[in-house]
Design brief:
With 705 residues, this protein is of the alpha+beta class. It has eleven helices and 27 strands.
């Protein structure tokens, strides 16, 4: 018949056991594990010459099994009589006798010997039987809990809070047993704990009934039945701002939009959240002494109506005072102050302190940064600030190796000095060598006096490139002024002087250009190592004329964009596109490779070789084009913390005329491993919509130029 807990008496939870456990259970239904069969088998083997040996083994095995095996009924109570346990017991006895029966039989004439051996048998039984039958963890449990708590009448988060409040105190259960007196005392305390645990959810008139049951010897069940009643409803809300900040519009807006309004259920979490938000906003506005002179919730006698009263006294507003920089004498004071987001006289803000410390840390010039506001030293509500710095070595030399299908094996050596001339100027120089590309680049940066993201730079580049499509030797000098427009937005005005000797197809030539231009970029990713959300876009407009000393006149517009969008099931959609347009009236042969466009390769159209797509000359050689259009759509699936797989489709080409545009297409799959020093990417792409489609493997790892 059904019992009070919805189960059936004598019905076991075998459906909750693991598959191996169910197989073991069915296996033990065989006659071999019947008590009489097991005993006769042991007697035939001469292992039970003494009945007391068998009794001792059965006693020890039973004692161990009761501790280790706990198969419960559907109601969660331990079974008083369990067929599975009996058959497991016979299995234990059989294996025990096979292993230790002869030794015990030989010592059976000495009662003391048998007693001294029994404890060792118990420990060995535990180890060897588990090893022999490999019981799954679902069958191996502790004994039934001596104190069980059952809560009825409440669900959800409220029930979780009640169970948390009723956690058994340390010491209530000792050596697997609980004292009746202490259990009753705990139950008395629970009568006050349960209503208190329900109040955060609006239940102020809850009725609690607690009974103590004893289903078995030395076990107790504390039955907690709750009648919550209706929740308390907010009938009035009064939130006021007083003091010097009483007219602050942002504080008044938060007060009027308090999370609990008239007619809402009185929940503590939104109440505390709204109360803390107003106070935190006041402190952010410089009212550091803002405190609630009144903060109360009044509940009527029935526990069904609530009135909220909050009065915030803002006090006086604080401001920043003198700023002291310590520990970095090799850097100019004006250079360091650029990293601070506040100046003397600004409204005091702990957020500004944190932002300043973060910017100093991100400068990579300091090992330790501490920004301290000395409020105890404040005078006339003006707080002095101390910035404590421990400089890092300004000079560094960093080698790197890698491999890419486009470049072949590659090696780079980077030198960096973050404090040139002791003025905070930055020097970056890189030597890079690969199978197809070699060069050296040096960039000198003069930081802006006011903005840490604005600077003036001069860059020299010597480069030699030799690939199937062309050979080129380039020397260039670029002078640039970069200005920050907030966040990661940057604009750059530049002029580049370059001279290039090149061979494309059967043509050998050289060119000289003076290229003024402007660039603009913006990017935001949640991670630089493995972005799961974010975007980047960039534009570049450049042009020249013969009157400026250039070989030819031209105007070029380049644009690129990429976006990563997170999706459910650990998926992410990555899209990218790149385009370029050239306004150029002379023959394409007058343009050097650095100003022509090609497609194909790891970062362009996978499935095709590096720079292998574009217009061809009369001999069939790829010579590049005036315009470019490429795009990629990739669906990524995260596997582990640092692994992902992807499926992608990309298309693109370089061309001279829009009416003759042909897009080369490919699709494939890839696997990616992300590390702090660079990602390992392996992709296999197959060309599509061509007469003889080919398959190409793209692989990149390690340091990138």
């Amino acid at each position: 018949m059904p019992d009070a807990y919805g189960g059936k008496q004598g019905q076991w939870q075998m459906n909750k056991l693991s598959r191996p456990a169910r197989h073991i259970s069915r296996w033990m239904q065989r006659p071999f594990f019947h008590p009489a069969y097991a005993e006769r088998a042991l007697i035939r083997r001469g292992l039970l010459r003494h009945k007391r040996v068998y009794c001792i083994l059965r006693l020890v095995a039973s004692r161990w099994l009761i501790k280790m095996i706990s198969v419960k009924r559907m109601d969660g109570r331990p079974a008083a009589s369990n067929p599975l346990r009996k058959r497991l017991l016979n299995c234990v006895i059989l294996i025990t006798c096979l292993l230790w029966g002869p030794a015990l039989a030989a010592a059976a004439d000495s009662v003391e010997a048998v007693k001294s051996t029994a404890q060792g048998v118990e420990a060995s039984v535990r180890k060897n039987v588990l090893k022999a039958i490999e019981l799954p963890s679902a069958l191996v449990k502790d004994a039934a809990r001596p104190v069980e708590i059952v809560v009825e009448g409440v669900t959800g988060d409220a029930r979780k809070n009640v169970l948390t409040a009723l956690e058994l105190p340390y010491g209530l259960v000792k050596d697997g047993k609980a004292d009746r007196i202490w259990v009753e005392r705990f139950a008395d305390q629970a009568r006050q704990k349960v209503p208190a645990a329900l109040e955060p959810f609006g239940y102020y008139s809850a009725q609690v009934n607690i009974n103590i049951e004893t289903p078995e010897a030395d076990t107790y069940r504390i039955q907690v039945k709750v009648a919550t009643g209706p929740p308390a409803i907010v009938t009035d809300v009064h939130v006021a701002i007083t003091g010097s900040g009483a007219s602050e519009s942002s504080l008044l807006a938060l007060a009027s939009a308090f999370p609990l309004q008239k007619g809402a259920v009185l929940l503590h979490q939104p109440y505390e959240q709204g109360r803390q938000t107003i106070q935190a906003r006041a402190q952010e506005l410089g009212y550091l002494d803002a405190e609630y002179t009144v903060h109360e919730i009044r509940i009527d006698e029935t526990g069904r109506q609530a009135r909220i009263t909050l009065i915030l006294q803002t006090g006086e507003r604080y401001y920043f005072s003198d700023i002291t920089l310590k520990g970095a004498p090799n850097y100019p004071d004006a250079f360091l102050r650029r990293y601070l987001t506040f100046t003397p006289g600004n409204v005091f803000s702990y957020t500004k302190l944190a932002e300043s410390q973060l910017q100093l840390n991100n400068s990579e010039r300091f090992r330790e940064v501490t920004v301290l506001a000395e409020k105890e030293q404040a005078k006339d509500y003006r707080i002095p600030v101390s910035v404590l710095l421990k400089p890092a070595p300004p000079k560094s030399l960093r080698p790197g190796v890698g491999y890419g299908t486009d470049t072949g094996a590659r090696f780079a050596l980077r030198y960096r000095d973050l404090n040139m001339l002791h003025k905070g100027h930055e020097l970056n120089s890189q030597l890079y060598i690969s199978e197809r590309l070699q060069g050296i680049t040096t960039n000198y940066i003069i930081p802006s006096d006011k903005d840490i993201r604005s600077y003036t730079s001069a860059q020299v580049n010597l480069q030699k490139e030799d690939i199937t499509t062309y050979r080129s030797q380039l020397i260039s000098l670029e002078l640039a002024r970069t200005t920050s427009f907030g966040n990661q937005k940057q604009g750059t005005a530049y002029v580049r002087f370059q001279q290039e000797e090149f061979t494309i197809g059967i043509q050998d030539s050289w060119s000289r250009y003076v290229l003024p231009g402007v660039r603009f970029s913006d990017n935001h990713y949640d991670s630089l190592i493995r972005p799961r959300r974010g975007f980047r876009y960039a534009f570049d407009l450049r042009g020249t004329d013969e009157v400026m000393g250039s070989t030819t006149q031209l105007l070029q517009l380049l644009a690129e964009a990429s976006h990563v969008l997170p999706l459910p099931w650990r998926l992410a959609l990555a899209t990218s596109a790149k385009t370029a347009v050239t306004f150029f009236s002379d023959p394409i042969s007058d343009l050097p490779p650095s100003l022509r466009f090609f497609a194909g390769g790891d970062q362009s159209v996978r499935g095709y070789a590096y720079q292998s797509l574009g217009p061809r000359d009369a001999s069939g050689n790829v010579v590049g084009g005036k315009h470019l259009l490429t795009g990629c759509v990739e669906l990524q699936r995260a596997l582990l913390e640092d692994w992902a797989v992807s499926a992608f489709y990309n298309a693109g080409n370089a061309f001279d005329n829009f009416d003759k545009l042909t897009l080369y297409q490919a699709a494939g799959v890839g696997i990616h491993y992300f590390t702090p020093v660079g990602a390992l990417n392996l992709s296999v792409a197959r060309q599509i919509r061509v007469d003889d489609p080919g398959i190409r493997v793209h692989f990149t790892v390690g340091f990138e130029f």
